[in-house]
Queue: 3 jobs
Job 1
Amino acid sequence: MMGIVYSTDSSFKFEEEEQVAITLEPHLQALKVRLDKKHRAGKAVTLIDGFKGNVSDAEDLGKKLKSFCGTGGSVKDGEILVQGDNRDKVLVWLLKNGYKLAKKIG
């Protein structure tokens, strides 16, 4: 939003620009899979970073990964979090589903 509250110009037309993020195909995604323990009370979380696309597609991918790993997680700030050290499972699922550029860090 632009933040316009009121205009005295009679010819003014407010136009909202909606920016829709386009989700890249799986083989074009450059995802990074890593283990993170910082700021999580010592609990391990598998972090998938680098997803390019809209939030609903990221949430859908997160849901599929959590289901495959049999654990919980969330999608926050463009990162997909899967509880526990599930790097190997996540990497296998990503490769099996066409994410060719997935990298395992750590």
Job 2
Amino acid sequence: MRTLIDQLFLCEMPYASPHGRPTLIKLSMDELDKRFGRGG
């Protein structure tokens, strides 16, 4: 996993695929809790 992430950030545009789709998203801990059924 670490190798894949390292290779991603060696790319010219690590934040988007060749088709322009995002490769990363940022989620808060609250959002993760909600998505995994742990939030109120």
Job 3
Amino acid sequence: MFLLILGIVGLPIPDEFLLTYIGYNVYLEKLSYVLSLGSVFIGAIIGISISYFLGIKLGSPFLHKFGPRLHLTEKRIETTHRLFEQFGPYLLFIGYFIPGVRHITAYLAGINTMSFKKFAIFAYSGAIVWGLTFITLGRLLGRNWHRVQFMIGQYRVYFILFILLATISVIFIYWRKGKTKTTKSKI
């Protein structure tokens, strides 16, 4: 639980590998499946909630103060705000499966003052699906764990790049559609 909290807040901890390894230990009957799922869920919701409340506490004033140092212009901040309003809830759910995205979405939800209820519905349900997926995967692949270790090492970069490119493509397509609708309505 503690490692998941730290990983979701933003420390570079390989959460998917950790969860899959927990599933492997469930396969070996060293851990309980139900208790493991409960621990993962609690760790994930605590971590993502901390990130959300940090986003609320630091919020826009933090971005406006330190943004220019990070090359975040007002235009970029506004664009991010609009995109998050449109896609934020879905990113909270899907973001668990995309390394790097799960670390940022909760901060953005807080910065954009998303209601806690809406945040919790999407973020917590995403945590359940994410934990269930990787623990079950580790449990199912238990007998072939040596192959899993090899494949993770060999193909992780390609998988991450695929997910990242797919996410960017979907966002770009919706952004272009929104821009086209805005242009047509002005005409």
